[in-house]
Amino acid sequence: PSLFPPGLHGIYGECRRLYPDQPNPLQVTAILKYWLGGPDPLDYVSMYRNLGNPALNVPEHWHYVSFGLSDLYGDNRVHEFTGTDGPSGFGFELTFRLKRETGESAPPTWPAELMQGLARYVFQSENTFCSGDHVSWHSPLDNSESRIQHMLLTEDPQMQPVQTPFGVVTFLQIVGVCTEELHAAQQWNGQGILELLRTVPLAGGPWLITDMRRGETIFEIDPHLQQERVDKGIETDGSNLSGVSAKCAWDDLSRPPEDDEDSRSICIGTQPRRLSGKDTEQIRETLRRGLEINSKPVLPPINAQRQNGLNLDRAPSRKDSLESESSAAIIPHELIRTRQLESVHLKFNQESGALIPLCLRGRLLHGRHFTYKSITGDTAITFVSTGVEGAFATEEHPYAAHGPWLQILLTEEFVERMLEDLEDLNSPEEFKLPKEYSWPEKKLKVSILPDAVFDNPLH
């Protein structure tokens, strides 16, 4: 049993069902296992040759399957054993289908490095992936000149969930997409774009096979898809994207209280108050310590040489945005008070700012909320509509902060006005930084700033 762990045996069984003629596939193996201190969480990535299905217009391709996100061993060396009824480990393994190039006799190994990078993110953040999720990678997946620079996730079309002695394992397939397709998934939802990709053979077809040489987006292949399917879907459904990791910050522009001794009576009574300078410095010092603890990147690079601005766009299928995930653990309880602010200044880099129209049109106008979580610290900004329950921002006091977490409540009328004023965010090629938008009567200011401004989050 020690030579062939039961969890491993369960996944191998499903692979053998699909590939009975490939009992010993090529494998990429972690030289030093994660549980022995190695950097790669996946023990193995198996690589199979799949002949496709000509009747369904599915081309021949390489099929990659990971081993290690689920519990392979059941002895707590990697994952805590929680019983047979729930998920095994994180509850899933990753798969990837890469179109086989003519004359290619062996599968490329770069997809295994890609899967290790995603697995490192899951292990470090303890955020699991779900079908429909999308990952901004900002770099060709194979380090070439390809337009395929981001990923969507969906159920593998052939592999069935497996019951192992340590719980259930499902199989999530990585699907490579172009930037325009990622943006459409953000504006609408991942499942909708996956369905469109399935209908276009050149862009994935029914089994969603990634072709790194694909030079056209689905909207260039079929221009009607954008207007007839995506735009209509956004208008009807709104966006499923409830938050993103981002380069962002916010400042309290409220008037300081005249009586400094009374500055701690915040969020009680009708007069908004600021923390005194002493309190603010305490929070800054505590946050500074917290930033040292939480300085790991949101998505780690695949290897030490590759330092991309990686970013995970979170769908609401996981922990919802209206939970403050880590500020409570970093700031002493007595300092976590909800305080009302009179005036705020929001700061975003260009990529994050480009998502503000999505936040307003796709989320708030549909009665939902949207969160920006800083990748450099615990700062978070949540926009809420009047219909969101559990918000601490109200129509009477639309700006409220809980530690480093700011909530902004926007009425439908103000959202419509902001969308008009922010229209040029949709034309990044004409954009010159820095750019500032201001609504004086609402005491709200938004700045779009160069990335370098966010290198020091306490600056």
From TrEMBL:
One of its GO terms (cellular component) is cilium. Gene3D superfamilies: Sufu, C-terminal domain (3.30.1360.230). Its main location: cytoplasm. Residues 298-324 are annotated as: Disordered. InterPro entries: SUFU-like_domain, SUFU_C, SUFU_C_sf, SUFU_N, Suppressor_of_fused, Suppressor_of_fused_euk. GO terms for biological process: negative regulation of smoothened signaling pathway; negative regulation of transcription by RNA polymerase II; signal transduction. It is found in: Cytoplasm; Nucleus. Keywords: Acetylation, Cytoplasm, Developmental protein, Isopeptide bond, Nucleus, Phosphoprotein, Ubl conjugation. Residues 38-214 form the Suppressor of fused-like domain. Residues 228-448 form the Suppressor of fused C-terminal domain. It holds the Pfam family SUFU_C. Belongs to the SUFU family. This is Suppressor of fused homolog. It comes from Sterrhoptilus dennistouni. The gene is Sufu.
